[in-house]
Design goal:
Blueprint: H1 2-12, H2 16-28, H3 36-50, H4 53-70, H5 76-92, H6 95-98, H7 100-118, H8 122-142
Helix pairs in contact: 1-3, 2-4, 3-5, 4-5, 4-7, 5-7, 5-8
Length: 144
């Protein structure tokens, strides 16, 4: 039900408060949805929101802040979700060309999250490598 409500806000947001509400609700889902179907639904909503110009900047700002905050409280699942969302930001929006200063903060946060994940178990390191290579090779191919 909550995901339906969030999708409705993406399609019908008319004010900055609607945008702020959506961004806040999206980031509240980080620790909640850990099953594949729910993660995909939230990921699809993030991609849809990034396609709307009014949402790109607030989502980017919240993403960078969440990534930087997550560096202090390392939760591997949250770290993987944040890396995936940062990939969506780069792939589905003009973020890299519109905000070079914020892009460098994002890249730094991605690097630190990857470093933290690479200090984990063999399985976590393997998953991090696979995710990073898959997601970011896709961004490079799409930007050619």
């Amino acid at each position: 039900m909550q995901l339906f409500f969030l999708n409705y806000i993406v399609l019908h947001a008319e004010s900055p408060s609607d945008t702020a509400l959506l961004v806040d609700l999206i980031f509240q889902t980080l620790p909640i949805y850990d099953d594949r179907a729910s993660r995909k639904a939230v990921d699809d909503m993030v991609i849809q929101a990034l396609g709307e110009p009014t949402f790109m900047k607030p989502i980017a700002a919240a993403l960078v802040q969440s990534m930087e905050k997550n560096l202090k409280v390392t939760n591997p699942l949250t770290s993987f979700k944040l890396l995936r969302w940062s990939h969506f930001l780069l792939k589905w929006s003009q973020f890299a060309t519109l905000s070079k200063g914020a892009f460098s903060r994002l890249a730094n946060a991605q690097a630190v999250l990857c470093q933290v994940l690479m200090n984990g178990s063999f399985r976590r390191r393997r998953t991090c490598k696979e995710l990073f290579i898959h997601l970011f090779s896709e961004v490079i191919v799409n930007n050619k």
